[in-house]
User: Which sequence fits this backbone?
């Protein structure tokens, strides 16, 4: 289990992104509703972006390498 330091914590769900290019197909339900949610940083200082599917609520973490 990994300890995380939240960068920004949101308790509400994201709204559908106005730019369809920012949404990705959900690996669980297949609908293009995987939407960027919040950032967090792990103990190795890697920054991760959590994405959540607005259709089925599946989520996944993808590396956010902008500030490496
Ligand atoms: Zn889904």
Assistant:
């Amino acid at each position: 289990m990994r300890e995380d330091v939240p960068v920004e914590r949101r308790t509400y769900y994201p709204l559908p992104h106005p730019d369809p290019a920012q949404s990705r197909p959900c690996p669980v339900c297949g609908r293009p509703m995987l939407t960027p949610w919040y950032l967090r940083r792990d103990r190795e200082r890697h920054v991760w972006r959590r994405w959540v599917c607005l259709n089925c609520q599946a989520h996944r973490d993808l590396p956010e390498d902008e500030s490496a």
